[in-house]
């Protein structure tokens, strides 16, 4: 698994999204503590899942645009390995 540095603006946007997710998650905990209506809590859970999906989508786009493109240029085993790696990650999040 190859490490690379992400562009600072991209990293900043991802971290901002994750901070929002973190805030939403804390809000759900508070809703549970306050015995809020189940449907309201479920709606917020759906919002968190959607927000995490967006973070994942941005990472997938970044990965395919950089890491996978580089592997495709190299071809052969490296390309197959990176494609398999991406498919395994997608299986885990879908």
Summarize this structure as a short list of keywords or feature phrases.
single chain; 94 residues; mainly alpha; Methane Monooxygenase Hydroxylase, Chain G, domain 1
Helices and strands in order, then pairings?
Blueprint: H1 8-33, H2 38-74, H3 76-93
Helix pairs in contact: 1-2, 2-3
Verbal overview:
This protein is mainly alpha-helical and 94 residues long. It has one domain: Methane Monooxygenase Hydroxylase, Chain G, domain 1 (Up-down Bundle). 86% of the residues lie in helices and 0% in strands. It has three helices and no strands. The longest helix has 37 residues, at 38-74. The protein is elongated. The two termini are 21 Å apart. The mean pLDDT is 94.
Report the total helices.
Answer: 3
Mean pLDDT over all positions: 94
Structural class: mainly alpha
Number-wise, the strands total 0
Largest sheet: none
Sheet-strand content, in percent, reads under 5%
Q: What is the level 1 CATH name? A: Mainly Alpha
Stretches with pLDDT under 50, minimum 5 residues:
none
As a whole number of angstroms, the C-alpha radius of gyration is 17 Å
Helix content class = over 70%
CATH topology: Methane Monooxygenase Hydroxylase, Chain G, domain 1
Amino- and carboxy-terminal Cα gap:
21 Å
Q: Can you write the helix and strand succession as a string?
A: HHH
């Amino acid at each position: 698994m190859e490490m690379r540095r992400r562009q600072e603006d991209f990293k900043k946007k991802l971290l901002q999204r994750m901070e929002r997710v973190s805030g939403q998650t804390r809000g759900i905990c508070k809703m549970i503590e306050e015995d809020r209506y189940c449907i309201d809590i479920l709606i917020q859970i759906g919002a968190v899942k959607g927000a995490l999906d967006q973070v994942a989508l941005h990472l997938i786009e970044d990965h395919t645009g950089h890491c996978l493109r580089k592997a495709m240029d190299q071809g052969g085993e490296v390309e197959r390995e990176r494609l398999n790696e991406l498919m395994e990650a997608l299986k885990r999040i879908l």
